[in-house]
């Protein structure tokens, strides 16, 4: 009647087709699960930046010494001392606690 070789090849092809179809159907659920777990992990990290919790006061000073010479109409600028920047002051970042709403006025 039927050739056994052709029948087993057809069975293998059908099994492969069912497995591939199953993977395509599962793809949606795997993506949603991965996305949900990533969001949950991100939410567990807590607040990363809150503009209402930051206060700062700084004074910035810059010093530099420059010498300019003018020879026959050509101006030459030379840095005698490199520019120095300094910043003094303080900053404070308030602690965020669970359940505390920092955005309420």
Spell out the blueprint of helices and strands.
Layout: H1 4-45, E1 54-71, E2 74-93
Antiparallel strand pairs: 1-2
Explain what the structure shows.
- The chain is α+β, with helices and mostly antiparallel strands and 105 residues long.
- It has a domain at 1-43.
- Helices cover 40% and strands 36% of the residues.
- It has 1 helix and 2 strands.
- The chain has one helix at 4-45, and strands at 54-71, 74-93.
- The protein has a two-stranded antiparallel ribbon with strand order 1-2.
- The radius of gyration is 35 Å and the shape is elongated.
Could you spell the SSE succession in H and E letters?
HEE
Strand content: 35-45%
Distance between the termini: 85 Å
Give the averaged pLDDT, no decimals.
Answer: 79
Show unreliable segments: none
Strand order of the largest sheet: 1-2
Helix content: 40-55%
Give the structural class: alpha+beta
The gross shape turns out to be: elongated
For the biggest sheet, the summary is: 2 strands, antiparallel
Given the structure, what is the number of helices? 1
The count of DSSP E runs of length 2 or more, i.e. the number of strands, is: 2
Radius of gyration, in Å, reads: 35 Å
